[in-house]
Design brief:
Length: 290
Amino acid sequence: MNPHTDADKVALAARNVSFDWTGLPMHYFDSNPFATQFANGMNMLLPEGEVFFVDVFQQALPLIKDDAVREDVIGFIGQEATHSSSHQSLLDYLKTQGLNTDPFVAQIQWLFRRVLGDRDLEGRKARSWLLERVAIVAAFEHFTSYLGDWGLNARAWDDALAPQVLDLFRWHLAEEVEHRHVAFDLFTHLDGGYIRRVRTWLIASQVLVILWVRGTRYLMSVDPELADKDRRIRLRDIRRAMRKGLIPGPWSLAKMYVEYFRPSYHPSRYGSTSQAVAYLASSPAARAAA
């Protein structure tokens, strides 16, 4: 039995949100190039990553024997598809302002489509590769569950982020909290092996760090509003962003990292469904969609 109760769960459904980026400044996060491009590093990962999540879960649907798990997975698929298109709209706008993300996005596409994509397999090998990718999605969703809880409570964001980006981030993170149990429940339903869980977390966490750091470095290098001397990531910029509460600190991240190794782990321990639903009820984009 999963640690969450019915009170922790809601019926999952995609919200047809849209965002108007008109007038958004290049450095929309605390007027800070590093903080902005650090956020954009994740923005670059999300569209392709969430298309991958959707594809894997659509392939897993025929294997699901539990109606409640199937219903949650269908809701998850709808929400993740909307997340992908919403973050893509921000990347498209930034491109019109001179920030070209295409070269690095091509590397992300290669990872999710070629390295982690479908393979010419049959029978048990095909099922094993699908289960491996379900476990990888569950591992990534462990991080997004943590980030959802952290971001909904990051009070420094209230004044630091441009309003429309603040709503994009909080709407997305609230839905991450809302569906935080789905990927892990699907993995548990289809496999649940501890060794596979640990192996895929070790892989996914390293991939996430490498891509996020390299993506931030790339974005700093092509930022159209930076002088050459300001294009590198400086340790003092990272410390400043952490000290101001704009990004998570090392101890919080370390605690999140080791939590996934606990045999009793379940993502319901991260975040509050009621808090997420309350934000979604007040989100300008979600209210407009409703």
